Amino acid sequence: MFSSDQIDSFETEEIAKIVKRINLIQIKNKLTKLEDEVNKNLQPFLSSDKNSIESREALQVYITLMDDYPEVLTPDLIEPLSGLLSSDTDESRLDALILLGTILLTKVERNEPIHGELIDTLAKMLEDSVVEIRSNALFFIEELPEEYFPYLGSKIKRLVEFLDETDHSSVIEAVLHILSKLWKSSLSIMLDVFNSLTKIYKDTGHREKEDKILHFLASGLKEFEIYVKNERNIQKRDVIVFLNNRYPLIKIYDINKIAKEEKMDPNDVEKNFQEIPGDESIFRFFYQDKKKYFIEIETEPLVKLLSKQVRIEDLLVMLGTETLDAISLLNLLVRKLVKAKLIRGYLSKSHFYSYESIKESMMNDIRQTGEVNLDEYAKHINYDFVVQIAENINKETKFKGIYSKNKSFFMTLSKVMKEIERSCVKESICDLSPYKTSYLPQDYELIESDCKKKFFTEHHEELRWLTNIGFTRLSSRFKQGETVGYINVSKIIEEEQIPESIVSSIFNEWIKSVPGVWDKTHQVYYLNKYIKQKIKQQGTKSGNQDAFIQDLAKELNIENESIVTNLNHERAEIINQIKTKPSIDLNTYCRALGMKREEFLNFVNDLDVEYLVQQNQMIFDPKQIERRKKEIQQKIEDLAYKNHELFIPDLSHQLNFSEHMIYDIIADLWEDKQMAGTFISDDFFITDAGIRDRIFYNKDFVTMEILFPDDVVGEESKSYIITILEKLVDSGKLIGEFNAETGEFRGEDAIAVKQYDDDRLNAQDMLNDYVKVMRTVYQKVKEIYMEKSEIRPGDIKRKDFLVKKRVLDEIQTWEKALKRAIKQAEVSFDSLDDAGEMTFGDMLDEEEKQSTEKIDGQAVLAEFNEWKQIIMNLDVNVDEIPAYKKRLKDDPENEGIKEKLEGLYNKLRFNENL
User: Fold this and answer.
1) DSSP-H helix ranges across 646-731
2) Pairing mode, strands 583-585 and 617-619
3) 3-state percent helix, strand, coil for the chain, nearest multiple of 5
4) What is the pLDDT of residues 328-357, one digit of tens each?
5) How far apart are alpha carbons 516 and 655 in whole angstroms?
6) What DSSP designation does 439 have?
7) Which listed site, 117, 257, 284, 311, has its alpha carbon 20 to 30 Å from 45?
8) CA separation (Å) from 205 to 167, 633, 823?
9) How far is CA 854 from CA 751, 824, 830, 860, in A?
C-alpha cells in the first residue's frame, strides 16, 4: 500500500486519486478490480509526453506495485514503456527499463515467444550514458535464452566498450557471459570478440578482468586452453605472444543440422551461405564429406601459418573436432587457398611446403654452397615446382643462376666463375670443354661470355682459351727474349704449355714492331738489334766483316743472305719512313732498331732531318715544328722572367718538348740578346737576375762553389759571373774583399770570421806542436826504461837530456805563448758580427762550421797541462825503474819487486797508449 506521504508527494491530482483507490482495493483484496483500475485509469498516463510529470509518476506507481502484483505488468505496456526509454529523465528511463525487463523475464519464465523488437529495444539501453541503466539492461539481456542472442550481434562493440570501462566484477562476468553465448554465432563475431578481448587484456591493469578474460579465451580456443593448463606461473607477456602466434579461428557449419533446426531446406541454407558478402579477413568454402559443411576460417593467421613448411597433422588442433575427415578437409583448404592465390606452395600427402619456405631454403643453400640440389628437393616436392622457384630466384634476386645439363643442379654463375678464376690466376690455358658438357647450352654461353670479360684474352684454340696471366707470361717471355736479342718460340710453347697456334698468332703480331729474322727451323727468332750488336762488336776487332757475317749465319743457323737483306731493308725502310712520315713513335722505332733514345736521335741527326720530340712522338712536319717552337719560346721567356733559372730537363718534362730543342731556343734567345745570362751546364741556364739572387743570398762569402754547389762552372761562365760581381762591388752594393781573379768575395762579417778562424787554428796548431814534442819525449823514455832489461848510465843521461832540455826548460815559455794565442782567439770571436757569422756559417760544410764556434780555451789548456803533468811525473819517478830491474835480474821470481815495478809502470802511464 501507498503511505499518505507517498500519496501527498504526487503532483498529478488524478494519479493521486488513482493511488487512493488502489489502496482501498488492496484493503478489500480485490485483485481483479485492481488490474482494471491500473489498466483503465493509470496506463494511459504512460502514453503521455515521455518527459511529463504524469508519465514519471505513473512509472513510480507501477514500480511500487510490480513486486506484490506482477499481474499488472501486461504485454500492453511494452509499447508505451519502450517509448519512455528515450525520456530525458534518468529516473523515468531506469523505471521504464526495469518494468520492460520484468515483462521480458516473465515471458522467459512462461516460455512465451519474445519479439526481436523488444530485445533490440533493451539492447539499445546498453548505450545509455547512465551506468545504472546500462547495468540493468545488461542484467535483463543476460537472462535471455540462447536462441535470442543473435539479436545482440550488432551490440558486441558496445558490450566490449562496457567491459573495457567497468571494473565491477558482476558486470565483467555478465558481459563475458553474453559474449560467450555470441562467441559461436559466426566467425566474424568470433573475430570481433577475440580481437576486442585481446586488446582489453593487453591494455588493462585490472587483475580480475585479466583473469576472467584469460579464462574466457581459454574456454573458446582449444590450443590456448591446453597451453594455459600446461604452463605454470604463466606471465601476461607470454599470453600475448601466444595469442599473436595462435592458430587461425575456424567455424564449421553442418548444413543439414542447421536445416533441421531451422526447419529449412538444406539447399536454402546453402544458398544463404553463398550470399554472405565477401570479407578478406575470412576465407569461406564448402566441404563435402558424408555430410556437407560450410567452413569459415580466419585468413591472415592461416596464410601466416602456411608461409612455412607445415605437417598436415599439426593443423588438426586448429579444427577442434573429430566429426569429419580432418585430413581431407585440410587438403581441400590448402588447395583452395593456392587456387585463390592467397598462398603459394606444394601440397604432398603429409606436408604443405610453402613457396617462401622452399625459396628461403634454396637461398640458404646458395649462400652457403653456391648451389641447389634440385633432385634432392624433388624427393619431397614436385620437380617442376622446384625448378620454377629456381627460375624465380634467378629473376628476382641478385643471384644469377645457371643449370647443369640435366637440370639436377641450380648454381650461381658466380660460383662457377670463382672456380674458373682459381684456375685462371695460375694457369696460362683454361679449357672450357668440361663446362660445355656439364651445362645447358645457353648457360654455357653465359659462362664463356663472362670468362671473356674477366679472365680470357681473345686468343683460343677451340675451347682452350689463353688466360690473362697466360698472355702476361707470353709477353714477359717475349720481352725477356727482346732483352737478350732472340726468342726461342718452340721452347716457350713447350715450357708454358700453350698451344702452338695461339703462341704463333700472338708472336706474329708482336714481331711486326720488332724486326728480325727466323732461323732455318723457324723456331728461333733473332732480333735485328742482336745481329747488329754482334756485327758492331766484330767491327772493333780486326777481320773481314763479310766473313764474320757468314760465320754468324752459320752459328745462328740463319741464311747468310737473310741477315744482310734484312738489315739493309730495315735501315732503308726506317729512313724512308722518317723522310716521308709527318711523325713517328719514338719508342717503337728505338725498339725496332735496338737503339737507346740518344743513339736513335744521333741516327736521325746524321740524316740531316729537322725534327722535334713531343712526348714519344718525333715530329718532322716543318710547320708544326715552327709553330711549336714559337709557343715554347714565349713560355721559356715568361719562365725566365719569373724564375730566373731554367733547368732544361725540367722544362722538357713541363713543356713536352725535346731537351736539345729547348737548348737551341734558349741559345737563340741569348744570342739575340733577348735573354741575358749564361749556361752553367748543358742543361742549366741562369739569367743575370738569377746570378744576382744567388750572390746576395750568399753575400758574406761568395765563391763559384758556393754559388753553384752542384755544378762545375766553366771558364766562360765564370768570367761572366765575375763581371757581375765586379759591378756589384764597384757600385757599393757589395762591401768587402773581392778577388777578381778567383771570383771570391768576403763580406765584412766573413773577414772577421776568417780572422777568428786563423787565430783559433794558430792556438790549436801551437797546442799540437807542444803536445807532439812532449809525446815524442815520453815515447822515447818509455822505450828506454820499459823495454830494456838493463838501464845503463848512458840511458839515464839521455833521459835527462830529453826531459829537461827538450821539455822542462821550455815548458813555461810554451804555456805563456799558448795562453796568449787562446786569448787572441777569444777576442777575435767576440768581435764577430752575429748575423754575418750565421750567414757565413750556413754556407760551410760541417767541418768548416766548427770554425764559427767559440774556442774552448779551458779544454786546450787542460790537454796541455795533462801532458805537462805526465812529463814532470816522468822526471821525478822514472829513475826508480833501474834499481827494480837490477833486483829482478838477480831474483827473477821475486813477486814483490814485480808488483812494485808494475805499479810504477801504471803510475808513469806506461801501460796506456798515449
Assistant:
1) 648-655, 659-671, 688-697, 704-707, 715-730
2) antiparallel
3) 65, 10, 20
4) 777 888 888 888 888 887 877 778 888 888
5) 36
6) B
7) 117
8) 10, 95, 105
9) 16, 12, 9, 12
What span, in angstroms and rounded, lies between the C-alpha atoms of 269 and 294? Answer: 10
Cα separation, 319 vs 140, whole angstroms: 34
DSSP summary character for residue 910: T
Handedness of CA 29, 35, 40, 42 (dihedral sign): positive
Are 73 and 107 a contacting pair, CB within 8 Å?
no
pLDDT tens digits, residue range 497-522?
A: 899 899 888 888 887 777 788 888 88
Q: How many helices (H) and strands (E) does the chain have?
A: 48, 24
Locate 356 and state its grid cell: 617462401
The more confident residue out of 838 and 805 is 805
**Alpha carbons 1 and 34: distance in angstroms, whole number:** 12
Strand partners, 461: 464
Q: Which three cell numbers stand for residue 625?
A: 715544328
Look up residue 193 and give its amino acid. Answer: V
Residue tagged 748575423 (cell numbers): 835
CA 255, distance to chain mean position in Å, is: 64
Compute the residue count for the chain.
Answer: 914
Is the Cβ–Cβ distance between 460 and 495 less than 8 Å? Answer: no
pLDDT at 723: 92
144: its cell numbers: 535471455
pLDDT attached to residue 150: 66
The position carrying cell 768581435 is 831
Query: In the numeric block, which cell numbers belong to residue 98?
Result: 526495469
**Mean per-residue pLDDT, 764-777:** 88
353 half-sphere exposure, CB direction, 13 A CA radius: 19
- Quote the DSSP letter at residue 323: S
pLDDT band at 306 (very low <50, low <70, confident <90, very high): confident
Largest Cα–Cα distance in the chain? 186
Q: How many CB atoms lie within 10 A of CB 663?
A: 18
Question: Which residue from 484, 534, 487, 533 is spatially nearest to 510, judged by alpha carbons?
Answer: 487
**Adjacent-strand bridge partners of 354:** 345
Closest CA to 704 of 735, 734, 739, 729: 739
Output the CA–CA distances (angstroms, integers) from residue 321 to 194, 203, 452, in the order listed. 20, 32, 65
Cell numbers found for residue 411: 648454381
Q: Which three cell numbers stand for residue 467?
A: 688466360
Cell numbers at 266, concatenated = 538444406
Average pLDDT, the chain: 82
Maximum average pLDDT range among 331-335, 565-569, 895-899: 895-899
Rg (CA), the chain: 62
Q: What angle do CA 564, 568, 574 make, to 5 degrees?
A: 150
> How far apart are alpha carbons 439 and 412 in whole angstroms?
12
- DSSP secondary structure, 238-258, as one string: HHHHHHHTPPPPEEEEEHHHH
Tell me the CA distances in angstroms from 636 to 616, 632, 655, 673, one per residue in order.
21, 6, 9, 14
Residue 676: CB atoms within 10 Å: 14
Strand order in the sheet with 250-254: 250-254, 292-298, 282-288
Amino acid at the residue 229: K
Q: Does residue 116 sit in helix, strand or coil? A: helix
For residue 250, give the nearest of 346, 315, 343 by alpha carbon: 315
Distance in angstroms (rounded) separating the CA atoms of residues 233 and 242? 15
> All 3 cell numbers of residue 641?
722572367
The three cell numbers of residue 174 are 555478465
Q: What is the pLDDT of residue 844?
A: 44
d(CA 465, CA 423): 12
Alpha carbon distance 257, 112 (integer Å) = 25
In three state form, how does the secondary structure of 564-575 look? Answer: HHHHHHHHHHHH
Could you tell me the three cell numbers for 830?
767576440
